[in-house]
Design brief:
Recoverin, domain 1
Length: 362
């Protein structure tokens, strides 16, 4: 069974390591980010760094999985097995990042997180698939390499996946934002609409091949959009844009840069954009383009042409033609698309996202 931690000052016990409690408390600082996909991704990025998983390559993770013969994905792993596997992971990381990795603390915290995500019943066990899903989702790897790995875990020996197996993967994936209290923004805990969406995309074939799954994931389905956004957040962290924020006047803009496709020379930094601040004359429903890396001359020309076109469009046009930056999932009961970015804001400010996250790490 899972061990509880005792606070000797308050004489109380809890399931979380004291450092984990501090980390969760620090995530509250990000609750002012209005768009839930970005709010969730920024929380996960902080979690990823605290667990040192941003240092873990997929190759190293796979070698450790192999070392511990984690092949039966529906097999349950107990605490001792999880600790043994995590210890191997972090000992590998310590060899190349000794100044960053405290093996014992990292094992304790990662175990704490995995159990919070996948062992809500406090049984002291989680499935092998759950363990792999959690580790790979937050490791350092190309986004599509993560998709390929996760698909292989639920595919048959012939390389195809049926609806039940896809459901297992999506269920384990959605537990990651659920643990942060963000699951409602990604369609809720019911994964059936997402499974149905994927197989409808594959022309309702009885089984799904990897290429079709990848094509569906590239559309950023609502239940999984937090993962590519996490990659964009990581890519944008050190980006420096030679532009000035029209609201707070920050120059250069560090992080995400949001450029208006309605007004010339109108840029917003990520802090102002995430808090919903706008300058006079600019509406939230106007289209914006997001950059997590500095723009190229070709992108500048393309955006200039779009601004010219949008100059002749009215506010009514943008209100009547909202666009989403993700693939919405439709439920059977409600019949309406559930919103990803949060009901208190417009979705189509995220319509145009120009970044090749497949080539980004973390």
């Amino acid at each position: 069974m899972r061990e509880q931690f005792r606070n000797h000052q308050t004489q109380t016990t809890c399931w979380d390591h004291p450092k984990m409690t501090e980390l969760y408390q620090s995530l509250a600082d990000l609750n002012n980010v209005r768009f839930s996909a970005y709010r969730t991704a920024m929380k996960l990025r902080r979690l990823q760094k605290a667990l040192c998983l941003d240092l873990l390559s997929m190759q190293t993770a796979c070698e450790v999985f192999e070392q511990h013969t984690l092949k039966q994905n529906e097999q349950l792993l107990d605490i001792s097995q999880l600790v043994a596997c995590l210890t191997s992971l972090y000992q590998r990381l310590e060899q190349s990042h000794s100044h960053l990795v405290n093996v014992q603390l990292s094992v304790d915290m990662c175990l704490n997180w995995l159990l919070n995500v996948y062992d809500t019943g406090r049984t002291g066990k989680i499935r092998t698939l759950s363990f792999k899903t959690g580790i790979i989702s937050l490791c350092k790897a190309h986004l599509e390499d993560k998709y390929r790995f996760l698909f292989r875990q639920v595919a048959s020996a012939t390389g195809f996946c049926d609806q039940r197996r896809l459901g297992l993967l999506l269920h384990d994936s959605i537990q990651i934002p659920r643990q942060l209290g963000e699951v409602a923004s990604f369609g809720g805990s019911n994964i059936e609409p997402s499974v149905r969406s994927c197989f409808q995309f594959a022309n309702n074939k009885p089984e799904l091949e990897a290429a079709m799954f990848l094509d569906w994931m590239r559309l950023e389905p609502q239940s999984m959009v937090w993962l590519p956004v996490l990659h964009r957040v990581a890519a944008a962290e050190t980006a420096k844009h030679q532009a000035k924020c029209n609201i707070c006047k920050e120059c250069p803009i560090i992080g995400f840069r949001y450029r208006s496709l309605k007004h010339f020379n109108y840029d917003i930094c990520q802090s102002c954009f995430f808090s919903g601040r706008v300058a006079k004359g600019h509406k939230m429903q106007y289209p914006m383009v997001e950059y997590c890396t500095p723009t190229t001359s070709g992108e500048d020309v393309r955006d200039f042409a779009k601004v010219l076109k949008n100059k002749f469009r009215t506010k009514r046009y943008f209100a009547k033609h909202p666009r989403m930056g993700y693939l919405p999932v439709q439920t059977i009961l409600e019949g309406d698309n559930m919103e990803t970015w949060g009901s208190h804001t417009n979705t189509h400010t995220h319509t145009h996202i120009h970044t090749n996250t497949d080539k980004r790490h973390k």
